């Protein structure tokens, strides 16, 4: 997810260093990008900068290296990423700091500034999101603030690239903030005592270390490698002071800081309480046109989907269906409008904050969620996984031995259904031409031809073609949708809605990010589990991702197949997968030791996403993904090739076929599909579907068989790439334990499901 | 003249018997206090005009009822204080409350009641008879201290104190600026609690919110 520069930086050339610090979500990464011209994945979900990026720019006095740190609310580390940020300041060679603040939330930024002042590090401050401050009628007397602090302050709007060069220049007049907090006699005495015990540090003042140690910062003791004997004395001093306070010292200290900052800001920040009349037209358009249309279509669509599931039994005519759909739309329209006009219309709240609370509303948020998911499915599942994949796979790459037949360039005339063909392109596919080229000097059954262009496991024909033809469209479109959800601020709100449900399975709302990302690609999602706070949460989410979350490649194919069967079967499939996810999550949260964490998350405001930012983000994520996944696909394909050549595949097929045939009740031919599933989850689906189709011949496929097969393949092993990442992130032992659980479990579920389905009158 | 304490104990007992069984019978009292003491004390109470005596049932007069109500109130408020604030363990807080009820005066009880936010029920779930302070609160809608998780959406509150036992939650909250004195607004309660203060919007678990005590601000 992160663009990491692994090149060794030439240390001789760097004249000075700067660390970027700030609260989460204030735009550090955007500013980092603007300063250095380097791209870091920017998102407004906290915890996205898990790793540290470095880059540099040419300042007035030579080249300056910039380090981007994860956002933190305090330099007293409470989580892994906050520790990273703090340790960079203490350990690294960076001497200067640029602190980025959200100018709407200067109080919280200054809490960090007081800590930097304590450390004695020079800082320049960038007040970012200045435009939002103006919008909200908050005025900040920056001149006065600059005088009080004694450090340069620059107003910036990172998304519009405003104030960046001023920020660059302000580094020259950098200074240590003139802030000193008196923590009261008891604590001050303790600080003095600690200062006597501590050695001198090259970068930071002892006072800062003393305060952090009094705040129970145990990670710091580790970082500074304090002598055990001294540490003992420090602890006894700390415990002695703690006796005078009923609340933890860390809390007492932070309260002092808060109080100090609030006093400091008196007269600097003023809030204008004035009604903003601007945008009245837009507001009315929102209330009278956009929302009614939107809510009507939400209801209409949901009713449509509902009818689709029961269509086989309802037997209702088209007219009744239409009436029902319109009724659904009208109901939803009624509810939404009732809410909007009774609660929001008369208030002077901004449209964006109304949308913000609508997306977290206990009832109305659910239909919104369904519609959002449906849109993403349309874009990723149908357009991406269906149309684009078919086109790239069969037309662009094609087959090494057969002609693809070319394709037409055409466009649709809207609403008429008329297709206008511009021209026919007689392109037979890259693989076909490669095949032709190779066949000039070797035959099609040559060993090397099979290795690279073979139909079963050729490195180019299968490995490369699939990774590019599948990954590029599906993952690309998914990241596009994901980026939209992220940048608009919808994703954190999803966490609010799902928190309670996630609590049942031992996670909290924060885990929404890896889970939703898992619908795109489980491999990437497994990497993102790092943002979770405890080991227990990381293990549970990794297991659930590998077991029950189908990735977009798989989901696209499954939805396509089931969608063509019947709605009921689709509903059964979804129900089985979801309930297993809960069951396994619930049980593992009971079995695993360790604690979960309470949910506490900041909500960024709903914003109109910037399309360039999303495209850029999608581009970098896809590129990152290709870089990670393509080699794995190639390795996997090669392994498959070796398996085929050595006859191991046939052996495995024979060994597994009794289970498949007698327990799952599926034709033996599908066994190969299950084994291939390890290489590519969606390919397994296709090959099983094909096997079932051939078996059925002219008859229709038994839908029960199909559901069993699809459920097993969804639960069944994660793909090879995912498994590698599991080993990397969770360790060999845990990864194999998970695999050892998943494989028998998926077959067991399939077998049980087969017998249950037999009993149901479907 | 019997000691005040025994009269108080008996009044309390009669009240509870009425609360639980609808009436207080002489037999109940014999079991608890012994035949002789009961008869003596009851006679004294009747002289003071606190009870009407007939053969088996004991009925409190208006004076007796008021007196008993005060004692019950003291006892149950004391339970709340010991249980919630001082965190005295289950076995001992009951005993403590029994001793407590005899030596506190009405003024102190009113302060305790206000401190606790005029609770309606005792830790066992029985009703606490309202005192003057509670009634005036209801009339004047004075500020009440209660957990953030109980606040309705749209209400503006001021943070009074945080009692979380978890260091991490406390540190995380305070470093975001959630400290006593902070004025915040509850945006919604379901599906998760969402609050905002200044320009920060925060979503949090009920588990954290129930440890944050706030006072409603009327403005």
Strand content of chain B: 15-25%
Radius of gyration of chain B: 22 Å
- Cα(first) to Cα(last) distance of chain A is 44 Å
Number of strands of chain B: 9
Give the chain pair forming the largest contact, with residue counts: A-B, 44 and 31 residues
Your description of this structure?
- The complex is a heterodimer of chains A (762) and B (219).
- Chain A is built from 31 helices and eleven strands.
- Chain A has 762 residues and is of the alpha/beta class.
- Chain A folds into five domains: 11-173, Rossmann fold, CATH 3.40.50.300; 185-271, Helix Hairpins (Orthogonal Bundle); 280-348, no CATH class; 374-458, no CATH class; 477-759, no CATH class.
- In chain A, strand 9 and strand 10 form a beta hairpin.
- Chain B has nine helices and nine strands.
- In chain B, the strands form two sheets. A six-stranded antiparallel beta sheet of chain B has the order 4-9-5-6-7-8. Chain B has a three-stranded antiparallel beta sheet with strand order 1-3-2.
- Chains A and B meet through helix 3, helix 11, helix 19 and strand 11 of A and helix 8 and strand 8 of B.
- Strand 11 (600-603) of chain A pairs antiparallel with strand 8 of chain B, so a sheet runs across the interface.
